[in-house]
């Protein structure tokens, strides 16, 4: 699927997104990342590719003011509805924006998060987005995505289970082939110890000084 087609599809399918990803265990990932993020009222957070706001709302629930950005208007509408209904609306601002061109100044957010989005992109888009994430972060970055097994048997099983991603994403094979830590370091982020939440991995990073 082409990138604009993918964003349109996500926009239209947005009301189904949460029921599906709940079954895939995303809420556990959002909570694990938030606990590790040390989010609090003083820590302004940018959630890149926020989708329906799972991570943004979990971080806001921990007290942090959050800006969530995404390209898919339908996903942002879902996030807005959830923010209103959970009374977190005052702490969460949702903006339609391309993660490849973030309209924020350098080092303007102490915390930047990006969950379950990089696997959908082409390698070039991933690198551009990570460059932007690095540019606007002043202290910490937390990235989360699929944990790709490296042993042959498990790797085969992973490919079979995630067959839909090979159709939907721009370059899932490229995503699965390269270590995320290597990508993050290439974006000038210092990777700390990654940890797992269910089928997913979280890479906490420091912004190199
Ligand atoms: C699988 S969803 C993940 C959403 C959310 N972070 C989560 O953990 O559930 C990926 C999101 O990335 C967004 N996205 C992809 N490329 C983008 C880009 N270049 N700029 C902004 N958003 C983008 C899509 O619209 C989609 O909402």
Quickly describe the structure.
This protein is an alpha/beta fold. It is built from 9 helices and 8 strands. Strands 1, 2, 3, 4, 5, 6, 7 and 8 form an 8-stranded mixed sheet that branches.
How is the topology of this model organized?
Layout: H1 3-23, H2 26-37, E1 45-48, H3 54-61, E2 66-70, H4 73-85, E3 92-96, E4 109-115, H5 123-136, E5 137-146, H6 152-161, H7 163-168, H8 172-177, H9 180-186, E6 189-191, E7 195-197, E8 200-207
Parallel strand pairs: 1-2, 1-4, 2-3, 4-5
Antiparallel strand pairs: 5-8, 6-8, 7-8
The chain binds S-adenosylmethionine.
S-adenosylmethionine binds at residues 7, 10, 21, 26, 49-51, 54-55, 70-72, 75, 98-100, 115-117, 120.
Description:
- With 209 residues, the chain is of the alpha/beta class.
- It has one domain (3-207): 3-Layer(aba) Sandwich (Rossmann fold), CATH 3.40.50.
- 46% of the residues lie in helices and 22% in strands.
- It is built from nine helices and eight strands.
- It has helices at 3-23, 26-37, 54-61, 73-85, 123-136, 152-161, 163-168, 172-177, 180-186; strands at residues 45-48, 66-70, 92-96, 109-115, 137-146, 189-191, 195-197, 200-207.
- Strands 1, 2, 3, 4, 5, 6, 7 and 8 form an eight-stranded mixed sheet that branches.
- A hairpin with a 2-residue loop joins strand 7 and strand 8 (200-207).
- The protein starts with a helix and ends with a strand.
- The model has no long low-confidence stretch (mean pLDDT 94).
- S-adenosylmethionine (SAM) binds at residues 7, 10, 21, 26, 49-51, 54-55, 70-72, 75, 98-100, 115-117, 120.
The helix content is 40-55%
- In sequence order, what are the helices and strands, one letter per element? HHEHEHEEHEHHHHEEE
Q: Structural class, from helix and strand content?
A: alpha/beta
Assembly context of the chains: single chain
């Amino acid at each position: 699927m082409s990138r604009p087609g993918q964003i349109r599809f996500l926009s239209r399918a947005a009301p189904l997104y949460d029921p599906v990803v709940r079954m895939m265990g995303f809420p556990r990932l959002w909570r694990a990342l938030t606990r590790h993020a040390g989010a609090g009222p003083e820590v302004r957070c940018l959630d890149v590719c926020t989708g329906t706001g799972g991570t943004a709302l979990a971080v806001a629930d921990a007290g942090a003011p959050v800006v969530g950005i995404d390209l898919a208007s339908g996903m942002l509408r879902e996030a807005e509805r959830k923010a209103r209904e959970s009374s977190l609306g005052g702490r969460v601002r949702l903006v339609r924006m391309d993660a490849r061109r973030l309209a924020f100044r350098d080092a303007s957010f102490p915390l930047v998060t990006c969950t379950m989005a990089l696997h959908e992109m082409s390698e070039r888009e991933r690198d551009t987005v990570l460059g932007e994430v690095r540019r606007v972060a002043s202290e910490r970055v937390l990235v989360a995505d699929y944990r790709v097994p490296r042993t042959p048997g498990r790797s085969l099983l992973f490919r079979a289970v995630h067959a839909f991603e090979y159709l939907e994403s721009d370059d899932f094979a490229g995503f699965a082939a390269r270590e995320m830590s290597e990508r993050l370091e290439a974006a000038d982020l210092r990777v700390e110890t990654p940890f797992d939440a269910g089928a997913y991995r979280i890479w906490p990073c420091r912004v190199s000084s």
